[in-house]
Amino acid sequence: MGTKASYEDLKIRALELEKESLKRRLAENALREREKRLNTLIEITSDWVWEVDLNGVYTYTSMKVRDIMGYDADEIIGTVYYEYLEGEEKVRQIASFFDKTRKAKPFSGWQFTQLSKDGRQVIMEVNATPTYNSDGKFAGWIGFNRDITDKVLAERSLKQREKELEIKSNDLQEVNAALKVLLKQREEDKSELEAKVVANVKQLVEPYLEQLKMSKLLPAQKTYLNIIQSNLEEIISPFVTKLSSRCSNLTPAEIKVMNLIKHGSSTKEIAELLGLSWQTIEFQRKHIRKKLGITHKKKIFVPTSNTPLTGK
Length: 312
Hints:
Elements: H1 2-44, E1 48-53, E2 58-61, H2 65-69, H3 73-76, H4 87-103, E3 107-115, E4 121-132, E5 138-147, H5 149-214, H6 219-240, H7 252-262, H8 267-274, H9 278-292, E6 299-301, E7 308-310
Antiparallel strand pairs: 1-2, 1-5, 3-4, 4-5, 6-7
Helix pairs in contact: 5-6, 5-7, 7-9, 8-9
């Protein structure tokens, strides 16, 4: 009886072991299928998947490393990630790696520049999470690098373009300000020129036209004189409303006297030319000086000339 019971026990135990073995084989098959799907996903992704130990030594790399860095997978395995860095970038990233290792927390968005096999600078965005061994101890990192070189260079180019446009905009504002000043000066110059034209016609031409009118002229001569006077009025009429001259308060008789003074005529000569007494001319000279704000007894400055005119 005891022998028979032992046989039955062994049979049951064998069946249990067979079931456990079947479960294990099924689990292993499922695991291999998952690994196969995972490897397929890793190979078709555009990112470079890798695994490093606590010292940053590559223990695994996907085949995508060839497309991004130009190295075959077996060239990467056993090397340290910072071998592909240089200069100050290398120093900074080594310190950053060991700081992350000390904290042992997942990270994302870490950026640095690695050198490809042909010396090209590849700007990477790194995302990783800690890995643990069978004892549950922190063993290293598994993650992926994404090539963001084109994106970063495009952003830099855009920022540079924005900066250049800002500079051009500021330059344009300065140019516009300068143009406004020039336009204002041009308007002032135009107004000054208009005033001079009107003043010169009033002072240097019209008094003599009036004098001619009072002389004995033939009918044709009078007609021509009227035409000349009419044309002059038409020429200066657009400017008259803008006229602001120091001489606008002088009478026609005073303007005649001032014009003759400018040409060097003495008081006696002016009196004879205008048919007036020299006392009258002196009186007019006094009034001209007063209206023009001239205190020197012997000098009159004509607004249309910078040269002082000396009375005689």
